[in-house]
Amino acid sequence: SREKFNATSYDTMAFVIITLQTFAGMWINGFIVSVLCVAQVKKKTFNSNEKIVLFLGCCRLGDLCITWVYVLLATVYPHCFYVNDMPQMFAATRMFCHCSNMWVSACLCGFYCIKITNFQHTLFIYLKAKIDRIVPWLFFVSVLLSLVMGILFYNVTYININSTTSTNLWKLSVRMEENLVPTFFFIGFILTTAFVTVIFSAILLLFSLWRHKCRMQANSMRNLNKDAHIKAIKSILSFIFIYSISFTGSILSLTHGRKIENLPMFFITIFQYALPLVHSLILIFSNPKLEKTFLKTLPCVK
């Protein structure tokens, strides 16, 4: 039928695009992890910023790997999902990796906000002095929340056995039952908390950078500093945009499941998993050391 053909076409297109995103994202995040590890071996010290970026790169590598394996199996051998506990294990692992990705990204944005902003409030001064000690606890809380999310998502996932397509990327759905409403509420609350953290931190950071830029412009300071602040502002705005898309895709996938038609679900999934690729590029070009090393590797790739 026409609907079956369209569903199969969307699945094939999604598999190709996600495969390209996965390998590009794995190469970029692998580059970040390897450069930071080599730098750590050379200088034998790690600042908090590098720790967060390194941990974020590892989380994104895991997120990309498990997503691609799931999509590959769903496209090539979908019947493997009829094995007991296989759908739930994949759903729980994907949720754990995806939640880790989003929460560590939120931690990085909050870290930049505390480190860069120059507000004179007592709370900001205290956090700025203690931020290096807080970073390991941020890692612990991020992993703990992601683990809880994975366990909860294990219990609400099922496979649609009545699927009419032989290859269907959207086989894993969620049970929309009354007794699971608190579970959905908690999962949505955790995702929303990370999103609010990002937005709040980014707004404060944008306000501080813009105020500092206006100050430099009023004092006729060098254009180089102003360009650096403008570049930072653009990077933050880009991160807010891509993070908002990823958050929206996560919430829609959670609340609607298979109720979304194939075409909207196709775009939701594509944009949802663009975060590990696009934001990692933003991190590279926002860091002079990573950018310089990255540009040196491009002739080798060619």
Automatic annotation (TrEMBL):
GO terms for cellular component: membrane. Pfam families: TAS2R (PF05296). Keywords: G-protein coupled receptor, Membrane, Receptor, Sensory transduction, Taste, Transducer, Transmembrane, Transmembrane helix. The lineage of its organism: Eukaryota, Metazoa, Chordata, Craniata, Vertebrata. SUPFAM superfamilies: Family A G protein-coupled receptor-like (SSF81321). This is Taste receptor type 2. Its main location: membrane. InterPro entries: TAS2R (IPR007960). The chain crosses the membrane at residues 12-41, 53-77, 89-114, 135-161, 181-210, 231-254, 266-286. Belongs to the G-protein coupled receptor T2R family. It is a multi-pass membrane protein. Signal peptide: none annotated. It is found in: Membrane. One of its GO terms (molecular function) is bitter taste receptor activity.
